[in-house]
Write a structure and sequence with these properties.
mainly alpha; 103 residues; 0% strand
Length: 103
């Protein structure tokens, strides 16, 4: 006999994405001149940029060889990615961070 998972009954009545949509709409009403960049689920209005496509292809290729396969990354992220984030996102804006400040 199938039983109802009692934890299912503890779930909230609302759904995360509908809550987010309500908050976005409230923000739009209170800040009508602000542009909103929507990164939520299902909001795909443009094709992927070429740089993203190339990076994904490269990542897939790395998975095909024992010499370049990485498996799960370290908990705090790969050093080469942290360094790239600092170099490309923070340093050009005059923000100087150490690798331990980016996670």
């Amino acid at each position: 006999m199938a039983l109802v998972n009692e934890h299912f009954l503890k779930l909230p009545g609302s759904y995360l994405f509908s809550d987010i949509a309500k908050k976005v709409n409230t923000f739009k009403v209170t800040h009508p001149k602000q542009d909103i960049i929507r990164l939520g689920i299902g909001d795909v209005t443009r094709p992927l940029p070429q740089a993203s496509i190339e990076a994904m292809h490269k990542a897939v290729e790395e998975l095909t060889s024992k010499g370049t396969f990485r498996g799960y990354g370290p908990e705090q992220g790969y050093d080469f990615l942290i360094d790239a984030i600092i170099k490309n996102d923070f340093t050009p804006r005059g923000i100087h961070l150490s690798p331990t400040e980016v996670s």
